[in-house]
Design brief:
Rossmann fold, 2 domains, eight-stranded mixed beta sheet, four-stranded parallel beta sheet, 14 strands, globular
């Protein structure tokens, strides 16, 4: 019996060890979110007592930019006494609201949220405000609600202006240059601001005949208007939206080129809203034998698009250094937690209130300055690219 007793003890010890190992694996494999703040944290350690100070909700894990932001947010709190937890909404407003509720139940004091859908996110942040939580809209403005306190963003109108000016500067001489217009998602307030900025710069060149709009009857009908109302912008976006989806952008570009007459081909310029859509559209235009040359914009300085720029397949990208944006957002959250008033540089009208905002500058990147802006600043490593 003594031998049996020893064996049972060993069995219990092994069973306990296996349970502990299983729990560790389950915690480590969680993809919903994690909390950390100290140097050396792996991202899977929860603060004692379950207290999370800053809740962060990002739109999706399917885009590299948001995954990079996740790591940078955690790193930004390494030297503080505060903890964050990050959840992803995976393109669902319902999941976004659920994520906010999950974080509220953990007792957060500050919510940082990049909404999937600006107007739809109102319900989620209103629940946060009822709980006395300070709400910071991150990168995308939440509209039609008074339940947000701050907005951290790049100057979205300036992004569009930079894209439009690049097309003007690189279109070459002549008249009636075909201009293809594309935009982001109509559910994203930034898409309106990007297009507003581009239109502000491009419209005079459309009105004087330098450019001829190739793919939007709504834009053509409004070509003599320097300033467009929200409704007018919405009509154009309704025709040229990509929904930030590279596949939708590709299909739209193919449809437009199939329908285009010979005088709308040759040397063309293309307003593409971001890098993912730009690469898809560029592939379509680059494979059309009747397109002799194209100039195309982008945004976000995605790694794949930097290689496209080096290879001459994408003309430019608007570099928004998200390291700075993350630092600004987390710095604002820490100020709030410390009882300080965050620094702001302007306001944005969200349809309900003027939201105090902190803006971050943007930079145009093309072949000539890839090294100086992205490699020397250590945003990327030169070994990640070929042909530099």
């Amino acid at each position: 019996m003594k031998g049996v007793t020893v064996s049972m003890k060993k069995f219990k010890m092994i069973a306990a060890l296996l349970v502990a190992m299983l729990m560790a694996v389950l915690v480590g494999c969680s993809s919903e979110g994690a909390s950390n703040s100290k140097e050396g944290d792996t991202g899977d350690n929860k603060p004692k007592g379950g207290k999370v100070n800053v809740g962060i909700v990002l739109p999706t894990k399917d885009e590299p930019r948001w995954v990079q932001d996740e790591a940078r947010f955690y790193a930004a709190l390494q030297d503080s006494d505060y903890y964050a937890e990050i959840l992803f909404s995976q393109g669902s407003s319902a999941k976004e609201k659920e994520n906010v509720e999950t974080l509220l139940n953990k007792g957060i004091d500050v919510l940082i949220i990049a909404p999937h859908d600006g107007p739809a996110a109102g319900a989620a942040v209103e629940a946060a405000k009822k709980d006395g939580v300070t709400v910071i809209a991150y990168d995308r403005l939440i509209t039609d609600t008074d339940a947000i306190d701050y907005y951290v963003t790049f100057d979205s109108v300036a992004v569009g202006e930079a894209q439009g000016q690049y097309l003007i500067d690189h279109a070459g001489d002549g008249k009636d240059i075909p201009l293809y217009l594309y935009a982001g998602a109509a559910s994203d307030n930034n898409a309106f601001l990007f297009f507003e900025g581009a239109w502000k710069v491009l419209q005079p060149k459309i009105a004087d005949g330098t450019f001829v709009i190739a793919n939007s009857s709504e834009a053509e009908a409004l070509k003599d208007k320097p300033e467009l109302s929200r409704d007018e912008l919405g009509k154009i976006l309704g025709q040229v939206t990509t929904n930030w989806d590279p596949n939708e952008a590709k299909n739209k570009a193919q449809t437009h080129l199939t329908a285009a007459s010979a005088d709308l081909k040759g040397e063309v310029v293309v307003l593409a809203p971001n890098d993912g859509t730009s690469r898809s559209i560029a592939d379509v235009f680059g494979s059309d034998p009747d397109i002799s040359n194209y100039v195309i914009t982008g945004q976000d300085a995605e790694k794949a698009s930097i290689q496209y720029i080096i290879d001459g397949k994408q003309s430019m990208t608007v570099f928004k250094d998200v390291r700075t944006l993350v630092t600004d957002a987390m710095g604002m959250a820490v100020d709030i937690l410390d009882g300080k008033t965050p620094e702001t540089t302007g306001t944005y009208d969200n349809g309900e209130i003027e939201v105090p905002a902190k803006q971050t500058d943007v930079i145009v990147v093309e072949q000539e300055n890839v090294k100086s802006e992205l490699i020397e600043s250590e945003y990327y490593d030169e070994s990640e690219f070929t042909g530099l």
